[in-house]
């Protein structure tokens, strides 16, 4: 079974600064997908960014980028120019490739990101 | 936003009472999932469905059953609710391919007294 570990229960950053959230995972599979989800106080789960394991290039979405290190099984999220609206819980998630669409996501326990004005 | 609704959005019930949560989608996606979210645990998969009448267990399926008689509806039933099932329940949907993201519903907060 796969496991996802987020070692930072809480992070704080000044507005406009850059912050990096850590995620490591354990798997014996070679093909899989990794995701970062954001959960603001509204409770809605919002996809931030997605990475396919077979792609060496790190995914980017505007101010959000990842550092994907497959050999180290590490998948960190970097948020540049932090904004007050970025304050939320952030979850790292893993999805197997082999199960087709039948596999659910395996989530980490989350990192609570605080943005200081 | 993906067309996913959950009902009810909030529910308070007593131990031993049966409870059914409904997830309804308008996207015609094949895969549907139920997760629970608890402090310190993130989200954990309860059950999932890969088609009408096709369901399977997830990581924390004990005490839960599911049914899917139509593509658009996925029901989660707690046959006899316990206080340990107090949680926030999320439904999610996904298209055929693995790489597609899962779209989440707004969640249902269930309190079992």
Helix content estimate of chain B:
under 10%
Report strand % of chain A: over 45%
Number of strands of chain A: 12
General shape of chain B: globular
Description:
The complex is a heterodimer of chains A (117) and B (113). Chain A has 117 residues and is an all-beta fold. Chain A is built from no helices and twelve strands. The N and C termini of chain A lie far apart (41 Å). The mean pLDDT of chain A is 93. Chain B has 113 residues and is mostly beta strands. In chain B, 38% of the residues are buried. Chain B is globular. Chains A and B meet through strand 6, strand 10 and strand 11 of A and strand 4, strand 5 and strand 9 of B.
Topology, please?
The complex is a heterodimer of chains A (117) and B (113).
Chain A lengths: L2 E3 L4 E5 L4 E3 L2 E3 L5 E8 L6 E7 L7 E2 L2 E6 L4 E6 L8 E9 L9 E2 L3 E6 L1
Parallel strand pairs in A: 2-12
Antiparallel strand pairs in A: 1-4, 3-9, 5-6, 5-10, 7-8, 8-9, 10-11, 10-12
Chain B lengths: L3 E4 L2 E4 L5 E7 L5 E8 L3 E10 L2 E4 L6 E7 L2 E6 L8 E8 L8 E2 L3 E5 L1
Parallel strand pairs in B: 2-11
Antiparallel strand pairs in B: 1-3, 3-8, 4-5, 4-9, 5-6, 7-8, 9-10, 9-11
Give a brief outline of the structure.
With about 120 residues, chain A is mostly beta strands. Chain A contains no helices and twelve strands. Helices cover about 0% and strands about 50% of the residues of chain A.
Identify the notable features of this structure and list them briefly.
heterodimer; A: 117 residues; mainly beta; 6-stranded mixed sheet; B: 113 residues; 7-stranded mixed sheet; 4-stranded antiparallel sheet; 0% helix; 58% strand; globular
């Amino acid at each position: 079974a796969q496991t996802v570990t987020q070692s930072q229960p809480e992070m704080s950053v000044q507005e406009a600064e850059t912050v990096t959230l850590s995620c490591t995972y354990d798997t014996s599979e070679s093909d899989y997908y990794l995701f970062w989800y954001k959960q603001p106080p509204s409770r809605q789960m919002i996809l931030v960014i997605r990475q396919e394991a077979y792609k060496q290039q790190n995914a980017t979405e505007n101010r959000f980028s990842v550092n994907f290190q497959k050999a180290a099984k590490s998948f960190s999220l970097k948020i540049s120019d932090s904004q007050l609206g970025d304050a939320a819980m952030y979850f790292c998630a893993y999805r197997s490739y082999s199960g087709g669409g039948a596999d659910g996501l395996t989530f980490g326990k989350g990192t609570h990101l605080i943005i200081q004005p | 936003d993906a067309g996913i609704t959950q009902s009810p959005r909030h529910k308070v019930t007593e131990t031993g009472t049966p409870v059914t949560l409904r997830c309804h989608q308008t996207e015609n996606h094949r895969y549907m999932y139920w997760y629970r979210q608890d402090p310190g645990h993130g989200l954990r998969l309860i059950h999932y469905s890969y088609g009408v009448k096709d369901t399977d267990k997830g990581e924390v399926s004990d005490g839960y059953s599911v049914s899917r008689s139509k593509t658009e509806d996925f029901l989660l039933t707690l046959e006899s609710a316990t206080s340990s099932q107090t949680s926030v329940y999320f439904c999610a949907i996904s298209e055929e391919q693995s790489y597609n993201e899962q779209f989440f519903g707004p969640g249902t907060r269930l309190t079992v007294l």
